[in-house]
Amino acid sequence: MVIGENLKKYRTEKGFSMTSLAEKAGVAKSYISALERNIQQNPSIQLLEKIAEVLDISVDHLIKEEVNNEELDQEWANLVKEAMGSGVSKEQFKEFLEFNKWKNKQN
User: Fold this and answer.
1) Is 18 left (phi over 0), alpha (psi -120 to 50) or beta?
2) Alpha-carbon gap, residue 38 to 26, rounded angstroms
3) What is the pTM of this model?
4) Alpha-carbon distance values, 42 to 12, 47, 61, 65 (Å)
5) Is residue 44 helix, strand or coil?
6) Is 24 helix (H, G, I), strand (E, B) or coil?
7) Extents of the domains making up the chain
8) Which CATH number describes the domain made up of 2-63?
9) Closest Cα to residue 52, out of 79, 32, 80?
10) How does pLDDT run across 22-77, given as a tens digit for each residue?
11) Distance in angstroms (rounded) separating the CA atoms of residues 68 and 104
């Protein structure tokens, strides 16, 4: 589950032990542990808000799957916009990518 993985990631990045995070957020250490091990999979939004506040992150960071942090450079963004503006559909673009992968394997 995403919440448990994200919680552990941000907790360790911020240098919190389970005990210190639990104390600062006002929740049981066993609950933090259960979240991280995906035993508890349905935490309340209020609990997530407490934890996120201590970690100095948004609740979104806890509940959403992480996307590659590399930002799309401006040239790629412009190419995508141009393709969209010229009428290229997502399906056509996906077909092109698959063809390109196939072509590269042939070489």
Assistant:
1) alpha
2) 20
3) 0.61
4) 22, 10, 16, 16
5) coil
6) helix
7) 2-63, 74-106
8) 1.10.260.40
9) 32
10) 999 999 999 999 999 999 988 999 999 999 999 999 998 899 876 554 555 778 77
11) 24
Distance, in Å, from the CA atom of 6 to the CA atom of 63, rounded to the nearest integer, reads: 7
**What DSSP assignment string belongs to 63-83?**
HSPPPP-PPPPHHHHHHHHHH
Q: What backbone phi and psi angles, to 5 degrees, belong to 99?
A: -60, -45
Tokens in use for 71? 């930002």
d(CA 33, CA 37): 6
Strands, E, within 1-107: which ranges?
none
Q: What are the structure tokens assigned to 12, written together?
A: 């360790």
Separate counts of helices (H) and strands (E) for the chain: 7, 0
